[in-house]
């Protein structure tokens, strides 16, 4: 009798294992799971099921591992060579329920595997104390008739929130019928869930009404509005006590927005969070939204420095020598042509002799676009030489004028230095940045000797170069020899009338950055936020929001030109070389007049005597 009973039990187990095996094989293929782990509690009475399943899976060419767990830590997802492992819970007793409840209390653990639970009891009752995050694929398999298994996926938006359940598929007659939609698409409805986020007002990227704790706009605020609409959730905002982006110190203590996320006071940071390696130790980030640059800003020099060769610079030395030789050559040819004409009787005689000094004066006048005197030789050969002289002079004057006008019209102010190395060597300016900022941490943790020198010489607290906000930093730039490291998106919102001067950037010193939304470590909403951020890219929404920001700030133009506006005027110092030449000529003329007067009086005295 006992032998017959044993055979009946084995046949029943084999029948159950056939359906379980079919579901296992189908789901492993569906999820492309590289590893399958069979798990059951030590208190289970059905010990034959695991052994039979392991043997049947091996028969079908699938390598699996089987474990009997004694504490929740043995349920933790194991490593797999590719894709997430498939953890199969064969037991559904009280020990399994308690182990799942304790394991799910550890943040970020459940989502590292795909879970399959074969359940013989009521679903809500068994999972009432288990937190299954929204990014975890947890499938519950329950028998539905003789040869069918119903599959249901379950999750919660947060601990102590209702359990969401959705039909995932059904296995029957050795075939699996499941939803083909991806996890990120089928769970893109957060059912009005309220996410706690930290933020603070920082136009133009984030505009937050801190009194009413309501987001008003800005690039990141508008992106968050779009995510709220697409994922169907609301937001409760928390403002950090220390109003700053935040810093991560060597002992992993944090401040500002970073501190709120690291301490778990909020899930998301709706703010332009700069991605750094140190921050990634205590928080997480979404895909980047904006990639601005950190520039070194200095006060633009008031005007051009005086250069005495300004009016000689349009032509090279060789060209100036050529022009001088041309003038001498033409001045030498004219009197010789005239003399030859008179000698052969083909040139009219003039009362005033036409000598080399007269010719030199007229040729110089031609190059200065002055006309010839009627007393100049009228010989045809001389007229041809006049014509070619004027044509040459017109072309040379046009080229000279165009180059000189371009030079006077375009203000290429010469900065005292163009790189950080030159700033160190010059020693004329101090370098500063925002306190509690990422730039400060960047130089503080730098391995490059140059950055280490900059931190020790300029950015250490003892030097007093750190400022609490952008406005104070720009005021120091305009009022003293102070260079300031900041983002273009932060500086451009302060117009020249507000900061008191025009700014220039060091052309060879900038740092590329990436700004994104901040997240807590192992945030269950990260994958969904990233997915819909990418859809915002693909749909063109994010590009439209960026274009709106750039248009309002005129940022695209500011990235590629010096920050100089308005009409440009020719200043006195531009004309100083010419005025000096004019003054020198007046003095020399007056001196010559006095010498001639003195010489004339002595001559008159001699004749009188």
Q: Average pLDDT, to the nearest integer?
A: 83
Strands, count = 19
Helix content: 40-55%
| Alpha carbon gyration radius | 43 Å
- The CATH superfamily title of the largest domain: Response regulator
How far apart, in Å, are the first and last alpha carbons?
Answer: 171 Å
Structural class: alpha/beta
User: Any idea of the CATH class of the largest domain?
Assistant: Alpha Beta
User: What low-confidence regions span 5 or more consecutive residues with pLDDT below 50?
Assistant: 1-13, 555-567
The name of the CATH architecture of the largest domain is 3-Layer(aba) Sandwich
Overall shape: it is elongated
Q: How is the CATH topology of the largest domain named? A: Rossmann fold
Query: Largest sheet at a glance?
Result: 8 strands, mixed
Number of domains: 4
Strand fraction: 15-25%
What is the number of helical segments per DSSP (H or I, 4+ residues)?
20
Strand order of the largest sheet: 2-1-3-4-5-6-7-8
